[in-house]
Amino acid sequence: MTASRFFLRSVVLSVFFLVTATACNDENETVTPKSSDRTAANAALGRAFFEEGLNADSPAARAAGFRRVVSPDYQQYNAIAPPGRDGLIGFVEEFYKAIPNLNAVIHDVFATEDRVVVRWTISGNVTGAPFLGAAPQGQRLEFDVIDIWTIRNGQLYEHWDQFDWPRCFIQMGIQGLPAPFIEAAGRPVRR
């Protein structure tokens, strides 16, 4: 093999490896799902519900936060909450009237391309208006909630939740709950 053929062969192989490496890099870049950006955005949307909405300092700030992250045609599947985004805003304000020092602490946020799930704890003292029909007596509340939302057009659209109501009712001093609920609510919480 002559030196010029060897050189030409080396150049061709070098170009081949360079093109192959570049193609592999492009392929690897497309292997990373573009939905990861959407998933991250949905997780941020779930956090914003609490940071900009639920934990905001005033009714106006909470309403503004909810209007930013919650769809105008919000679908509420909580049986005791009024429907729609305005129903949500009013429902949260009823909580604040009863629990002026209400605080939400997020423990977990899980997101997909079209959903977000947040596990969190609500805490505060019932010192304002009656809460769920129980008179305010300074009761200390601390119970867990899980919220699930679908996402539509970059906002929270459909909503389901699960509250640890037995623990809440026991902390409220509500009498007559079944013994298994009282026993379960008395156990330490692992968060």
Give me some keywords for this one:
single chain; 191 residues; alpha+beta; Nuclear Transport Factor 2, Chain: A; five-stranded mixed beta sheet; 6 helices; 5 strands; 48% helix; globular
Describe this structure as you would to a colleague.
- With 191 residues, the chain is an alpha+beta fold.
- It has one domain (35-185): Nuclear Transport Factor 2, Chain: A, CATH 3.10.450.
- The protein is 48% helix and 27% strand.
- Helix 2 (35-54) packs antiparallel against helix 3 (59-69) and helix 3 runs antiparallel to helix 4 (84-98).
- The protein is globular and about 45 Å long.
- 16% of the residues are buried.
| N-to-C CA distance | 72 Å
CATH class wording: Alpha Beta
Question: What does the average pLDDT come to?
Answer: 85
Q: Order of helices and strands, N to C?
A: HHHEHEEEEHH
Helix coverage percent? 40-55%
The name of the CATH topology is Nuclear Transport Factor 2, Chain: A
Helix/strand class? alpha+beta
Low-confidence stretches: 4-33
Number of extended strands? 5
* Biggest pleated sheet: 5 strands, mixed
Please count the helical segments: 6
Summarize the structure in short.
The chain is built from six helices and five strands; from the N terminus they run H-H-H-E-H-E-E-E-E-H-H. With 191 residues, the chain is of the alpha+beta class.
How is this fold's topology laid out?
Blueprint: H1 3-31, H2 35-54, H3 59-69, E1 70-76, H4 84-98, E2 103-111, E3 115-126, E4 139-152, E5 155-163, H5 165-172, H6 179-186
Helix pairs in contact: 2-3, 3-4, 5-6
